[in-house]
Amino acid sequence: MRIALTAALLAAACSQAPPMPVPEATREAAGPPVDAGQRAANEPAPDAGQDVAGGIKQGASEAAGNVAAGAKEAAQIVAQAASTAAADLAEALQKLPPAPPIPDTPIFLPAVEEPRDNPTTPEKVWLGYQLFFDKRLAKDGSMSCESCHHPELAWTSGNPTDPKVGGGANKRNAPTVENVAYYHSFYWDGRAPTMEAVSAAAWKGQLGADPGSRRTRPERTCPWRWRRSCAP
Ligand code: HEC
After folding, report:
1. Residue 222: inside a domain, yes or no?
2. pLDDT tens-digit map of 97-120
3. Is residue 176 assigned to a domain?
4. Residue 168 is part of which domain span?
5. CA of 174 to the centre of ligand 1 (A)
6. Which atom of ligand 1 is nearest to the CA of 192?
């Protein structure tokens, strides 16, 4: 029964189409046990495969009505949650003041070459500027990028070395981040190829972020997980 329900929910989520008419969903739910088993691969394994499969076959036809209703209800809840989230986001975006224009490059410097896969926009520049000073980026909220790259010290820390979030040691001092937009290699030994790589490394290495953990990456809502596991 649980497996059949999962199969019906997966089928509804994967199709990404409006919920199927009840009779079809019912047939899906009551389909062969092999199919149900495959679709529910992410779910904890049933305790006794054969017995459970037999049980599902029997129970499925009686439970089919409930399953279909459940799937339909779940699809409705998911759709409602998605539209609420979209509305919230649209409202929040409307409240935000527009990003200020990107400051002009000083006339004595050449134009900055943009990475082709990450074009510069006023919104990204403004967001990046704010994130640089935001301690919420750190695992324990104790540091921001600015903690080691102070504007008033030419974007260095002024210390021989600085401890990372969590107490780990840095072997080298924090270099200036002035004009790094012109660099083609980063760090004292030039080992990092792009600004994008350095930013991600600093977030994880210096600020202790764990992008895989729930703390820094909120759990995705079910439709995303399903879509990913349903991807061909
Ligand atoms: C705890 C101190 C610390 C924090 C916090 C920190 N950095 Fe750094 N940063 C360093 C050190 C040390 C290096 C040099 C590492 C090396 O050369 O091996 C560095 C290097 C860099 C560089 C390369 C500069 C160059 O000359 O190649 C950039 C860019 C940079 N950091 C950006 C950031 C950003 C963005 C953040 C926030 C997400 C950040 N840093 C947070 C210590 C820190």
Report:
1. yes
2. 899 999 999 999 999 888 889 999
3. yes
4. 137-226
5. 6
6. 27
